[in-house]
Structures are given as C-alpha cells and as structure tokens.
Amino acid sequence: MAERAIAVDLGGTNLRVALVGRDGTIPSRQSVPTPGGGPDAVIERMVALIGEIAAGAGERALPVGVAIPGPLDPATGVVAYTPNLPGWRRFPLGETLRSHLGRPARLVNDGNSAAVGEARFGAAKGCRDLVYLALGTGVGGGIITGGRLIEGSTGLAGEVGHVTVALDGGRCTCGAVGCLETFAAGWAIKRDAGLVAATAEGRRLRELAGDGPVTPALVAVAALEGDPAATRLLARAGRALGAAMGVFVNLFNPTLIVVGGGIAGLGEPLLGPAAAAVADHCFPLARAAVRIERSALGDDTALLGAAALALDA
Ligand SMILES: [Zn+2]
Q1: How far is the CA of 163 from the centre of ligand 1 (A)?
Q2: For domain 4-115+300-312, which architecture applies?
Q3: What is the whole-number distance in angstroms between the Cα of residue 238 and the centre of ligand 1?
Q4: How far is the CA of 159 from the centre of ligand 1 (A)?
Q5: What is the pLDDT of residues 240-288, one digit of tens each?
Q6: What distance in angstroms lies between residue 199's CA and the mean position of ligand 1's atoms?
Q7: What is the Å distance from ligand 1's center to 160 Cα?
Q8: Where residue 169 falls among pLDDT bands split at 50, 70, 90?
C-alpha cells in the first residue's frame, strides 16, 4: 500500500503539484501559473511536474490524484466543462492522463476534493458527516456522509453553491435562478456592493474604494466599522448562506459545516448572520447537532483531498 501520493490542484490561476504523505504532510511541492491555450498545454506541464516530483521522491509509480475546477464524471474521466479555463468542454482527461502516465489517476471535482481534505486533515478531521462550502469567486463544496464522499451518478453531486434560496432570485452562472451563489459568491457581493456604492447610502464604500472597485473585502471593512449599508449587504448574503446550510442540515444531518475560501475570510459580518439564520430553515434537533467552523487548511484543502482519494483508490 502506497504511503505517499502525488496530488495536483488545477486552478484557474495556478497549477500546483505536490508530494503528500498519508498523514497529510507535504514534503515537496511546485506551483506554476496555469498555462493558457487549452488542455494540451496544461496537461503537458502537469505531466512534467508530476514526473519531477516523482523523480525527487525516488518513486516512479506513486498514485496520482487530480482536483479539477469544474464538474467531471469520475467513472469516465470526462471533464464536463471548467468555468474558469477555456477549452475543457467534454474533455477526456482520464484517458489522456492515463496515456501520458502509464497508469490511471484519480480525478475529482475540486470542491469535492476539498471536502475530503477537510475530513481527513482539517477542521473536520475524523468527522464522518460533513458539508464543506468553498466561498470564493463562485461557491463550490462537497458533501461527505457516513464517511463517504457523495459524487452522484455522473459526478455532479455536492454542488452546494447551486441550491435555490430565492424563487424569484437572479440568474446564476449555472443558468438556474436564485442559487446561493447569486447571493454569497464573490462576484455577487461585488455586484451588490457596486449597486449600493452608487446610492447615497454607499458613501463609506465609495470612500474606501477610491478610484478602484468596491471589493468584498472593502465591504467587510465598512461593516466592521458599523456602516449600515455594508452591514445590511453582508447580512443578506449571510442569510442566504444560512438558508442553504439549513437545507443541508435537513438533508444530511451533518455534525459539521466547514466554510472555506476567500469570502469566508470576510468573517463575522457574513458568517454571524449565516449561523443565526440556519435555525429558521431546518429541524431544531438537526440544528442542535451541527457546528459551523472555518476551514483550517488554507489553500491546500483540495490538494490534500486529491492525495487522500488517490491513496484510497
Ligand atoms: Zn447556480
């Protein structure tokens, strides 16, 4: 049984490859800007980095796990599409990697991978019933129930950012209406902040932004100062987040909901209203059984999950 795996985290910005021990230690790692120009250039670089890390480890045939920024079918290895990377629609990544590496790689959606990373090594270490929410530019995540990652029949399960929280809500990046993402994603908070900043109430946001855009981080600064418009804006996003959490609590009865990603860093002005709202959207007994915590793994969550899944395979 392998004691180490090579993990790949393919992001829209960076391509990261690391040697990861079964205990979650990372003895070596490399990070490069994700090559532009589509899958071929990315895979060429990925395979070269995997080779370098393997050579450094002195083991050629280590298991490989790859976290992908989009939905994919783990059974067929076909990536459905990647919202932030061009050219990956219906791309047979599993087959392509197998021909380059001479062995199969474990492919996983990065939100699902991050959920596994949290359950094995992070805030949810040892937890068997967990919902992980990655609040970034979009909203991703994953669900582990009874110790098992839920991937669904074609790999599309665990899309926690796309539960409906408003019947008459705005159109989401996924094409649906009223998704959690349309309230709590970085893009949604930034859009709402821009709208507020254009009104009389948005004076403090305009001051903080100067000539630049009103970023979610600036909204949090204003909210922590007590600015009413910024406080209201993040409380609304937080209530949407709490409503979605209530759905997960009723469906999966988890012991832990872990919140990670840059937007989780906005802290109390967002997460306070979220935690307070959960009880309005689920059974009281199920609410009493669940804790809400921040991720403790930073940027390595998906990388560690990909390694754990490769070691399990
Ligand atoms: Zn959506």
Answers
A1: 7
A2: 2-Layer Sandwich (3.30)
A3: 17
A4: 9
A5: 999 999 999 999 999 999 999 999 999 999 999 999 999 999 999 999 9
A6: 28
A7: 9
A8: very high
Residue 255's φ and ψ, nearest 5 degrees, are: -90, -20
Task: List the one residue out of 74, 49, 50 whose CA is nearest residue 61.
Answer: 50
- Euclidean distance between CA atoms 205 and 215, whole angstroms: 9
Give the Cα separation of 231 and 285 in Å (integer): 30
CA distances from 121 to 10, 68, 107, 233 (A): 20, 20, 19, 33
Q: Does the domain spanning 127-295 belong to CATH 3.30.420.40?
A: yes
Cα(62) to centroid of ligand 1, in Å?
A: 37
Q: How far is the CA of 91 from the centre of ligand 1 (A)?
A: 22
Task: Report the interhelical angle of 228-252 vs 268-278 (nearest 10°).
Answer: 40
Q: Is 33 helix (H, G, I), strand (E, B) or coil?
A: strand
Q: Whole-angstrom Cα distance, residue 261 to residue 150? A: 21
**Structure-token match 């590496």, residue found:** 101
Report the pLDDT averaged over residues 50-73: 94
Show me where the domains of the chain are located: 4-115+300-312, 127-295
Which two three-digit tokens encode residue 233?
């804006």
Within 58-197, residue ranges assigned H as helices are 93-101, 110-121, 181-184, 186-197
Q: How far is the CA of 202 from the centre of ligand 1 (A)?
A: 28
